[in-house]
Amino acid sequence: TQGFSGTFAATFLSVMVFFLVSRSIRRCSSSLWTYKRRSLSQVQAEYEKRKRECAEASSLRPVNPLSVFANSEVDLAEIEVYGFDFDYTIAQYSTELHREIYDMAKRHLVEAKLFPKGILDIQYNPQFAIRGLHHDKEKNILMKLDNFLRIEPKTVYRGRTALSQDEVAKLYGGNQVSIVDLDIFSESSANKRVRQFLDMFALPEMTLLCDCTQYLLDEEIPFDHEYLASDVQFVIRKLHTSHAIHDEILSDKERYVNRNEGIVKYLDKLKQAGKKLFIVTNSKFSFVDEGMCYVIGDDWRDLFDVVVVRARKPSFFTDCNRPFRSQHPDSDTTSWRKIVKFEHGGVYQEGNADQLMKLTGWNGANVLYFGDHVYTDLADPVMKNGWRTGAIIPELETEIKKSSSVEYQRTLRWRLTLGKLIEQLQKESKGEKSVTLERWLKERTDLRIELKETFNPYFGSIFRTHQNPTYFSWRLARFADIYTSSLGNLNNYLLKHRFYPHRAALPHELNILPDI
Fold first, then answer.
1. 85 catalytic, yes or no?
2. What's the whole-number mean pLDDT along residues 425-453?
3. Residue 405: left if φ>0, alpha if ψ -120 to 50, beta else—which one?
């Protein structure tokens, strides 16, 4: 097939829904935005009429959750080389892995950091955290930020306790985090106090951090907020560097690894079309090999022209001085010989992107690299190497299904319509009308919370706040040319398909968009 209809406006999951809803409102009620002074009864009648129209309106055209969405124009006919990360790109993991990481980290905190044994009784809640949240280690606050670094109300937690807007304002002198305090995944910002959690493995870490905080507060055990954050980060990192997580995955692949035949089909499709394929992953080869044998088959290396392990991303893309080393596939031993060319299906360690391009003769503009981490996988290939990039966002499919429901769309339509009613009424909000305005503002707040909780009761959607894209989706828009929930979704598109982003309406352009 040529592909699914519709890609997302500009960059973000919900922008398309907002655009279609706004267009629907303009069609059925263009007179709503014409200002004229009205009596209170007329104001209330307009309110009732618009609310009834929204409740009775038919649903919008649903978005296919298996689509590929474009932030910038990408012509697959120009792509000759396809690259892939391993974890959460080719290999997809179950929530059972997050639960096990959480439990392993708890035990390490008790054994290595002498935390109270009572934390061992805390159970993992997979519904708590979402990807893209920020943590202020000095204040021990987990929160959700938008693209202006503003803090979304009712998404701020110390432990499992939600902080009010007044409490947040006292802590930050308002509702915004300063950019100077933000770790933006660069060497110059590595020690900043506000850290963002961007990969799927961060979900159990955020949950454990909040659960330990709540336990210590409930038990009235004095503790230092920064040391707590440091200790939790340390044990999670130790699980990775010691390969304890890898060993656990390999001990029960059926429990932890989700097989996806669509991914296998897509890789075969690329190979049959004569495309060049490569892997660049930070994982060690023995783990990748066993995982690929499980997901794809024992002959998986025949698919790939180059396999790079222990790549040290993001340094792989920025440090031009680290050469490749050839690794023997049957062991962790490496050769001391200088690499002057790559052998098909060969396995290599470390290296750098510049040398990869020189040894292969590939052109950056013809490379499309897929990964799940906005900074580690996608930022530098775009900014430094000129590659095209694709983000794999597993949560996307579920979010689209929820936002495509009739109930969600009607609530969203009414929320936007009510916003326009509020905008008009504020021009004449005197006397009884001011009381009506306050009531409408309260209703809008309730609708915002209802829409947020459709996705997650604590933090809402990973893609947007009440009004703006999240900081996560803003970065996704900058560093991912296309994005989708799984590599297998690309089977629905020809290898000459061109992805087009929708032109995003700027605030001053809304009234000049064609009503079609």
1. yes
2. 90
3. beta
Q: Do residues 282 and 313 make contact, with C-beta atoms less than 8 angstroms apart?
A: yes
- Indicate which residue of 75, 87, 211, 224 is catalytic: 87
Structure tokens at 411: 């609530």
Q: How far apart are CA 218 and CA 118, in angstroms?
A: 11
Q: Residue 502's beta-bridge partner residues?
A: 9
- Count other Cβ atoms within 10 Å, centred on residue 298: 10
Query: Does the annotation count 302 as an active-site position?
Result: no
Helix axis angle, 396-403 relative to 406-425, nearest 10°? Answer: 70
**Residue listed under structure tokens 């080393």:** 325
Q: Which one is catalytic: 75, 85, 121, 166?
A: 85
Look over the chain and give the mean of its residue pLDDT values, rounded to a whole number. 89
Distance (Å, rounded) from C-alpha 323 to C-alpha 313?
Answer: 14
**Residues whose CB falls within 8 Å of the CB of residue 364, separated by 6 or more in sequence, listed in order:** 357, 385, 386, 387
Residue 265 pLDDT level (bands cut at 50, 70, 90): very high
Cα–Cα dist 471/133, whole Å: 9
Please give the pLDDT value at position 164. Answer: 95
In percent, how much of the chain has pLDDT > 90? 75
Structure tokens at 366: 């013809």
pLDDT at 189: 53
